[in-house]
Amino acid sequence: MTNAPVKVAVTGAAGQICYSLLFRIASGSLLGPDQPVELRLLEITPALKALEGVVMELDDCAFPLLSSVHIGDDPNDVFEGVNLAMLVGARPRSKGMERSDLLEANGAIFTAQGKALNDHAADDVKVLITGNPANTNALIAMRNAPDIPAERFNALTRLDHNRAVAQVAAKAGVPVTEVTHMTVWGNHSATQYPDLFHTEIGGRNAAELIDDQAWIENEFLPTVQKRGAAIIEARGSSSAASAANATVEHMRDWVLGTPEGDWVSMSVPSDGSYGVQEGIISSFPCTVTDGEYSIVQGLEIDDFSRAKIDASVAELVEERDAVTSLGLI
Ligand code: NAD
Ligand code: LMR
Fold first, then answer.
1. pTM score > 0.95 for this model?
2. Is residue 242 within 6 Å of ligand 1 at its C-beta?
3. Which atom of ligand 2 is nearest to the CA of 132?
4. What is the CATH number of domain 158-319?
5. Cα angle vertex 233, ends 87, 227, to 5°?
């Protein structure tokens, strides 16, 4: 093994998502079979004992790629020199709560962590926010880290993307590998817009092939938009293994590149593409080459899609205004 370890920070490391995520990272699912990793794990003080137990389990896997594990409750220490940061730690939504209820509770976490990344992370750091409300938490972290280029802050809508792919594959009776060019636009919330008008099934337009606007509007969209709530209702707690999987896939594609001839959904700082207001972090179709993402340009947006994208963007603007008045950005 000749590669120097990549330093990967993960927050909320004793929580549900990380109980899956950390083992995926350490086993090589994130950066491939030749890249050692150093895990740097952040928790709040009362959770450090539980985290020690998780570290014992990481040790007991004897992962060849795991060079070391460092844990702590101080972001200034844990984020020292990190190349990749996965910010998962936040209070999850419980039954009946909307994501907006979490803005105040979780916003403060991301001001402190944005500042700590600004002061201590490596120059090439990439930061992915999974903790909810993910898009606006990413905005808070980004705005509190003025020395890190804004485009290094992403939020997770890959889980929504994967959910949408799975629903379409089931409807069409094809393997998920046949479904490409999926786009989730907007916020990781019930206003998100999974767009079937550019999606392809076996290379053919998905909306045309399915040819069932009632299914798209009355079944597909609400199923994907409310999937998080459905899982909370069924499991009694929010999605964990699938969220960990999506977190790995987003960061892996951001580092190693998106599949040839396809794109993925990533929440990135808007540059005004598709009329999405600059200054928010919104989901777009993206490709990645050499570690840099680009928003796919030139897709035609019809009136139906326009209204859906605008509604989700309006929610993100409201969230941004709310955290501005809370003094978080
Ligand atoms: P969890 O409650 O099991 O774990 C969260 C952990 O974060 C806890 O161990 C807690 O101690 C820790 N934490 C809290 N404040 C922290 C801080 N300041 N620094 C470091 N750690 C801190 O929750 P979970 O199920 O792992 O979910 C984590 C977050 O991910 C939630 O906000 C959840 O809503 C969100 N989530 C997002 C998506 C998505 O697609 N974007 C999907 C699922 C869950
Ligand atoms: C999800 O989409 O599963 C998570 O964001 C949990 C939630 O609060 O919906």
1. yes
2. no
3. 5
4. 3.90.110.10
5. 60
